[in-house]
Amino acid sequence: MHNNGHRFRDVEHHPLLAENDSYDSSSSEADMAERVWFIRDGCGMVCAIMTWLLVVYADFVVTFVMLLPSKDFWYSVINGVLFNCLAVLALSSHLRTMLTDPGAVPKGNATKEYMDNLQLKPGEVIYKCPKCCSIKPERAHHCSICKRCIRKMDHHCPWVNNCVGEKNQRFFVLFTMYIALISAHALILCGFQFFSCVRGQWTECSDFSPPVTVILMIFLCLEGFLFLTFTAVMFGTQIHSICNDETEIERLKSEKPTWERRLRWEGMKSVFGGQPSLLWINPFAGFRIRRLLLRAKKGGPEFSV
């Protein structure tokens, strides 16, 4: 039985609620918008902390092992500023991905009273998720970790401790892009540093002893190679999915599209917002510190798992 796409959009944003609705009003979209989104998943929190620690480690090795001991002032300044700016952008993108509601459907809104208020026509079909008892919009899938149906859910990523969905995919794409860039930058700097140290017979190429320097740089090279490979592939698959208007789940399930696809630039504009500009690669776009502080006072973590 196929659903009516227009009806799904009506259901998804329908403003009417009965006064005696049995589901908790704190789960409504208006209240969700006033809360800080955070998933209390042990594995996800460990992976998120590891991500930050690995970026901090790379920054430490690049700054204190390779750049500060260098005798070339401008080489150190230019590469230091570039690497640290990319690191800040990467970690900011990570935070925006982790703390942004990916497009959760209000839990428990599939009540008889609410359904009556929708004034459905005879023969119209809507879907109810049996796991979170919510009206399931078109292209939404249930996440067992977030315990919610997520609109345009692509996948759940433990490294950002969140689902990648309709509202935070942009930040996830930026996160993979900036991690790939700092990984490539770190590998290039490691290559120059090894060459410099070997040519100078490991004298005065670092403030650390030669064995410690070698160990730190080898680990950074391994980290950079693994991160570059993983994030570059993930970045490519995300851009491909956006340009084809097809999530990873829809591709794996070979779901036939029942929606009007937004291909290539239309898909990019729908995810990144508006015409191409520098705002597309800015993870701080749309961020309001005051709004975040108000949400923190009102809510605390939105979900616990």
From TrEMBL:
<dbReference type="GO" id="GO:0019706">
    <property type="term" value="F:protein-cysteine S-palmitoyltransferase activity"/>
</dbReference>
<protein>
    <recommendedName>
        <fullName>Palmitoyltransferase</fullName>
        <ecNumber>2.3.1.225</ecNumber>
    </recommendedName>
</protein>
<keyword id="KW-0472">Membrane</keyword>
<comment type="similarity">
    <text>Belongs to the DHHC palmitoyltransferase family.</text>
</comment>
<keyword id="KW-0808">Transferase</keyword>
<dbReference type="InterPro" id="IPR001594">
    <property type="entry name" value="Palmitoyltrfase_DHHC"/>
</dbReference>
<keyword id="KW-1133">Transmembrane helix</keyword>
<feature type="transmembrane region" description="Helical">
    <location>
        <begin position="42"/>
        <end position="67"/>
    </location>
</feature>
<dbReference type="GO" id="GO:0016020">
    <property type="term" value="C:membrane"/>
</dbReference>
<feature type="transmembrane region" description="Helical">
    <location>
        <begin position="171"/>
        <end position="194"/>
    </location>
</feature>
<dbReference type="Pfam" id="PF01529">
    <property type="entry name" value="DHHC"/>
</dbReference>
<feature type="domain" description="Palmitoyltransferase DHHC">
    <location>
        <begin position="128"/>
        <end position="254"/>
    </location>
</feature>
<keyword id="KW-0812">Transmembrane</keyword>
<feature type="transmembrane region" description="Helical">
    <location>
        <begin position="214"/>
        <end position="235"/>
    </location>
</feature>
<dbReference type="InterPro" id="IPR039859">
    <property type="entry name" value="PFA4/ZDH16/20/ERF2-like"/>
</dbReference>
<keyword id="KW-0012">Acyltransferase</keyword>
<feature type="transmembrane region" description="Helical">
    <location>
        <begin position="73"/>
        <end position="91"/>
    </location>
</feature>
